């Protein structure tokens, strides 16, 4: 499979070549422990997992602005010859998690909607991003901070299931519009 190209590690490790290569594969700016049992395909400091023909990468949760509501972003690649779909989600962060999509209305506003499934085409990648598909975590009982890790389990139409360790990280870029999330529970 083709791996996404990542920017080179800006911190050239002063280590023997083999270790340097291992670090380069991990490609993280603060992987101080080369022996860390990260999968080679792991994204920079982000969560990844593989389940049968499904690869999950780049999983992270921006530190929630509203401590009770979080979102998880990731990318799912389906290497199978048949289409699949994410059909369920649960997480250690809260008993209440949903698959969700942000749809843009005619007026240009983002509207959140809980969805039953998120398609992952055969040989394709579906990316969960701000303004698109995401995992919505509601009613978080214990506030999460940068450095915390939560487990997110995705279930698929094919019957596959994948556990991903998802780091809570500082928000990068513009903050997602969480204004619609308060209405989220109304849809339940
Ligand atoms: Cu949402």
Automatic annotation (TrEMBL):
<feature type="signal peptide">
    <location>
        <begin position="1"/>
        <end position="31"/>
    </location>
</feature>
<dbReference type="InterPro" id="IPR058248">
    <property type="entry name" value="Lxx211020-like"/>
</dbReference>
<protein>
    <recommendedName>
        <fullName>Copper chaperone PCu(A)C</fullName>
    </recommendedName>
</protein>
<keyword id="KW-0732">Signal</keyword>
<dbReference type="InterPro" id="IPR036182">
    <property type="entry name" value="PCuAC_sf"/>
</dbReference>
<dbReference type="Pfam" id="PF04314">
    <property type="entry name" value="PCuAC"/>
</dbReference>
<dbReference type="InterPro" id="IPR007410">
    <property type="entry name" value="LpqE-like"/>
</dbReference>
């Amino acid at each position: 499979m083709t791996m996404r190209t990542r920017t080179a590690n800006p911190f050239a490790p002063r280590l023997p070549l083999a270790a340097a290569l291992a670090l380069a594969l991990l490609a993280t700016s603060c992987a101080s422990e080369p022996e860390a049992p990260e999968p080679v395909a792991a994204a920079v400091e982000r969560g990844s997992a593989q389940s049968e023909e499904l690869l999950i990468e780049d999983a992270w949760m921006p530190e929630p602005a509203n401590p009770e509501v979080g979102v998880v972003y990731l990318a799912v690649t389906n290497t199978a010859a048949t289409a699949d779909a994410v059909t369920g989600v649960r997480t250690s962060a809260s008993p209440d998690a949903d698959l969700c999509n942000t749809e843009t209305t005619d007026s240009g506003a983002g509207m959140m909607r809980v969805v039953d499934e998120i398609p992952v085409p055969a040989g394709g990648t579906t990316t969960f991003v701000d303004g698109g598909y995401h995992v919505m975590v509601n009613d978080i009982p214990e506030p999460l901070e940068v450095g915390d890790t939560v487990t997110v389990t995705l279930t698929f139409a094919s019957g596959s299931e994948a556990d991903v360790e998802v780091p809570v990280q500082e928000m990068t870029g513009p903050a997602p519009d969480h204004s619609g999330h308060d209405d989220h529970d109304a849809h339940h």
